[in-house]
Amino acid sequence: MQGLSTAEFDAAAALAERAAAAAGRRLLEAKAAWASVDSQLGRDIKLRADREAESIVLDALHGGAAYPILSEESGQIGAIGAAEPYWVVDPLDGTYNYFRGLPLCCVSVALCAGDQPLFGCIFDFNHNEMFTGGPGGPLRCNGALLASAPGADFLATGLPRKGDFSADRLARFGPHVAAWKQVRLLGSAALSLAWVAAGRLDAYEEAGILWWDVAAGVALVRAAGGRVSVAGDLLGGTLDVRAYRQT
Predict the structure, then answer these.
(1) What confidence score (pLDDT) does residue 137 get?
(2) Could you give the count of Cα atoms lying within 13 Å of 146 in the half-sphere of its Cβ?
(3) How far apart are CA 200 and CA 13, in angstroms?
(4) Alpha helices by DSSP H, the chain
(5) First CA to last CA across the chain, in angstroms?
(6) Model pTM?
(7) Cα 76 from chain centroid (whole Å)
(8) Domains of the chain (ranges plus CATH)?
(9) How far is it, in rounded angstroms, from Cα 135 to Cα 247?
């Protein structure tokens, strides 16, 4: 557990769940007010919900564990070392879905060390599903153990705002996704990975994604015994992520 005692790890996992649950509950309760637009730049949209949910998560984490934080809205808070524990937070993954009333969004909190997620917590507040776990398992949903038979024909992917939309890239994208029986673009990388871990999807692939979008989901897929590859710059750059429920 990367230098953490069992007690420290268990306390951090419980804290992540509390933080995600608190933010998720408020995202549901305050949606009428929080879906207002703070800013729009190109394909990116920021809502009041993003900063309000982040404030709830960060307040909870600061109050329970003195680890540095990498968060989508605030960036790095504290110095993140090469192998020391730190939090990775996406307070609202699937912002545009939330804005439009599409119930495919979540709160994502991960505990990482270096490039390794130790624990992930993804709260699908619309469906009241809290997915938790880390490498070595177990994978849980609302505290109950999850296990499912892996398949190989159902892919989730996305077109991230920082992705490559060149003609060459899109020309290669079509034949690749056509090789799968079914493909879904959910608009939430974190939720896609949680559903791969749970066996609802078989794989997730996306290029040009960011660490806070996927860190917790990577932990969940590894908890489920799946395999994941992550290439790129974790602390600020874009990543290429491939996750498969099959080992």
Answers:
(1) 85
(2) 27
(3) 24
(4) 6-29, 31-34, 48-64, 95-100, 167-178, 189-197, 211-223
(5) 22
(6) 0.94
(7) 17
(8) 6-145 (3.30.540.10), 154-244 (3.40.190.80)
(9) 13
